[in-house]
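Quarterly update, task 2.4: zinc ion-bound model.
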Amino acid sequence: MNYQQILSITISVLAILLGVYNLIIAIKNHKRNSEIQRHNDKIQIDNLLDKAYDFLFGKNGYYKTKEIDKYNEAESQILRAKRSMKKKLTMIICSLFISCGIQAQIFQPTTESLQKHDLSWIKSKNAFDQSKLLASQIENEIKQLIQKYNYENSAIGTIDIPINTKKLDYLGFKHPNELGIFTANPISNTNSTSINKQLHIYRYENFYFSTEDDNETSQKNVYFSIRAIEILRTLYNDAFDKLFVQTLSYTGDRPKFEKWSNSNRFYWTAFNTTPDYIAKSYTSFLGAGYFPNIDGISDIGRYKNVVVIDVHSGNILGNDATKGSKPIYKKPTPEENYLLYMKEGLVETYIHEMLHRYIDYLYTDDKTISDIRKSRDLANFNAAEENAILNTSLSYFIRKGGISDELIKYYYSEVFNYNIKSLKDNNQYNTYIKIFADLPTISTGKDRLIFKLKVLDY
Ligand SMILES: [Zn+2]
């Protein structure tokens, strides 16, 4: 459960308790008022009797004045009770309004708030006024908010931050080719098929996000993706720098193994139903001319690419027992599985997918990475690459902290071990480990040492 749900449920419970309390008081008051009324009736009869007594015996007794005082006291008691009833009714109505209001802000965006596409309907308890700040000042504030969380002892799932409103743009419902960033290799049915359609497109610096639907969940998906990027930028800065920042530059203008050099320009997160499980990714290679001929070599191409990360918009919702967020977190409600994945799983997904894409980036210049890239056509090699990526990413997060044991255990036991068995069953294990490990430096069987890229912690 997230804090918004806890807050909302707490307020609702308080409102209900207040309502019940007031109902009891109201019944009590009603009983008391009828008693007072009965008592007053008795006093009035007594007064009449008194008057008759006076009339008959000419006495103005002590008994009578005492009862008149009692009558006045009773009347003011009724008045006080009525006033307190009014007050309490107002309080009940107010608390109900507040409760409904907060629920509406957090859980039920209106059609208008969704149409704004600024994600402002998603509230963070750490929200601050961004209107008078520059984008860079907001970024600093967000960074400080993230740093306050002790992520080594608690999962990053608890981090609650607003997004930088000055950096977010909704670009509309359009085909990605309309953006002018794929012109060197336009998206078609033969490449980048996962985003070959009209989509709701958002931009946040050099990050693009697309959703096929335009509902509450699609907008939450964009919000949590931005949150994940901000967390990576701040808490996992070394990995973020290596995979998202350094790769914006070319590996070199005279690459050792190919006649071209790669770099990234944009990162595109696409929510759709193309991945088999949770996510898959690819590089959209976009030629950008040639390096200058300074030494008689004129045909070294350069590429400014877009990394596309597809995230399965259905499997993350936590309904499917065998795919997506549910088998990882095993929580009873889909919402819990979804939120746990979006808050921590997605952060790991970004590093995992960017490691696959790091192979696309570095293979022109690095021997091991070049060998891995060339092996991609081999049968079942994807099981070997998958293990190397999974293990490189998880080892990094285990060392850094912040990711839950559920996630780590799930990937090692359900994916890593399964792939090892599959490689052994197909007699590929002994061949493929040579591509990753400098044997016999590492003895066979030490799979977590063998299937690991020297990227994040060497
Ligand atoms: Zn993978």
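Highlight for this quarter: The pocket of zinc ion is lined by residues 352, 356, 386, 389 (CB under 6 Å).
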